[in-house]
Write a structure and sequence with these properties.
This protein is of the alpha+beta class and 432 residues long. The protein has 3 domains: 218 residues, Rossmann fold (3-Layer(aba) Sandwich), CATH 3.40.50; 79 residues, Uridine Diphospho-n-acetylenolpyruvylglucosamine Reductase, domain 3; 98 residues, no CATH class. It has a 6-stranded mixed sheet, with helices on both faces. It has a 4-stranded antiparallel sheet with strand order 7-10-9-8.
């Protein structure tokens, strides 16, 4: 084997060459922990003529964290690249909660250093993929979760997260590091069999490797199959949602229920994913029973998620931002012939005015029992809301206009001749 063949046969060099051919002209930020993985990636990048900006995140969770900072700075000098140290403080949490918190904080810190059209590199490799897939399998993940770590992910401002070494085995990484006499630091927590990931690494992986020496390669293939299956499911779900959705906040209940439950669930999951929501297994069971099958005795069942609430209407399902459902505080307006604009809630705005002079009014959310006298007959707000087919979730927040001395003048949307003769009101209700 000649020298050229020997060099190009290295999977790490091949992976970096592939990355360079696609993203070599983009700004590159390398997440550098100082461990063997990120050190190998740094060395391979520089040898291919690339100059990444190193970013080392100091969590302060380890006694040797300051030594890791020094090591990162020394490596930056050695390779002639820029190094940024980001120090973050974390609140006290249990071990697993702390790991999740640290991971989220680390990525936030890293993304702050990635410019528009930039690429964030991490040094995840094949063994990381195997550990992740087994971890999610033990936690009951579905197809999406079993897709494991993705080699490439797009983010805002034309930025992307890229993991060039994901197909590379741990043994190839270690061989490269030793052959090139690289220097790196070891995280002592990696050897502690406390976290489930470490238990998988030290307990389960060796057994799996005995049963199937190429286990990590095979499980990586499984992850790729699951990623492809998930992409196909999302493509189908996007097409279904286009047929179901009535507005940004609602969808047709009858059309949705005409789908099989797995397909109906996938369509709704597609929309919720776009909104940044995740739904637990227990919550999906509630959606199936109360929204899809409608076996609940509740007329209008609801399910509260982290940022939205699912609400059932007559033949509509709604996914409403929680901010839409907060009752506004009482508003006081001084009206003149020039219309006064008022955004009552995000889904309803008012334009109020009087024919002449001025009038001070108070606007409050509906309390119940509101009525006005029209031609000797009492007209109730509740009856009007029902006949106007106002969605039930809007009814409780519907505004009512009072004279400053307490007399009920009317509510937005009711016929103009019901109003007190001096006041005019226009209402804007976006499609929900």
């Amino acid at each position: 084997m000649n020298e050229y063949t020997s060099k190009t046969a290295c999977p790490i060099e091949q992976a970096v060459l592939l990355f360079k051919s696609v993203y070599g002209h983009h700004p590159i930020v390398l997440a550098f922990s100082g461990g063997m993985d990120s050190t190998v990636l740094l060395d391979a990048l520089v040898k291919q003529g690339l100059t990444p900006k190193m970013v080392h995140v100091h969590h302060g969770l380890q006694a040797v964290a300051d030594d890791w900072v020094l090591h990162a700075q020394q490596q930056a000098v050695h390779y002639g690249v820029e190094c940024h140290i980001e120090r973050i403080e974390l609140a006290d949490k249990p071990r697993r909660g702390m790991e999740d918190l640290a991971r989220s904080a680390r990525y936030r810190a890293l993304w702050q250093q990635v410019p528009n059209q930039g690429v964030l590199l991490t040094a995840h490799h094949q063994r990381d993929q195997a550990e992740t897939l087994l971890l999610r399998l033990l936690r009951g993940a579905g197809v999406k979760g079993l897709g494991g770590i993705h080699a490439e992910q797009s983010f805002d401002h034309q930025r992307c997260l890229y993991r060039p070494l994901l197909p590379v085995s741990y043994e190839a990484m270690l061989d490269y590091a030793q052959r090139n006499q690289l220097s790196w630091v070891e995280d002592p927590t990696n050897q502690q069999a406390v976290a489930l990931r470490n238990q998988i690494r030290h307990g389960l992986l060796p057994i799996m490797r005995e049963l199937q020496p190429a286990f990590e390669q095979k499980i990586t293939q499984t992850a790729l199959h699951c990623q492809e299956a998930d992409a196909l499911l999302m493509e189908m779900a996007a097409e279904d949602w286009q047929k179901l959705h009535l507005s940004e906040q609602s969808w047709s209940l009858s059309l949705w229920q005409s789908l099989s439950w797995p397909r109906a669930r996938q369509a709704l999951a597609y929309r919720l994913t776009m909104l940044g929501e995740s739904v637990t297994v227990a919550q999906w069971q509630q959606v199936k029973q109360q929204f899809y099958q409608r076996v609940s005795s509740q007329t209008h069942p609801e399910l509260c998620l982290s940022q939205h609430k699912l609400v059932l209407g007559d033949d509509k399902g709604y996914c409403l931002p929680l901010s839409w459902l907060v009752a506004p505080a009482e508003q006081v307006l001084n009206l003149t012939p020039q219309a006064r604009q008022l955004v009552w809630v995000p889904w309803l705005s008012l334009a109020l005015s009087i024919k002449q002079g001025n009038l001070t009014v108070k606007i409050k959310p509906r309390q119940g029992g509101e009525k006005v006298s029209v031609d000797g007959k009492m007209r109730s707000l509740k009856s009007w809301l029902q006949k106007a087919h106002v969605p039930h979730w809007q009814m409780a927040l519907w505004p009512v206009v009072y004279h400053e001395q307490g007399q009920l003048l009317g509510w937005p949307g009711m016929p103009s001749h019901w109003w007190h003769e001096s006041i005019e009101c226009q209402v804007i209700v976006p499609s929900c």
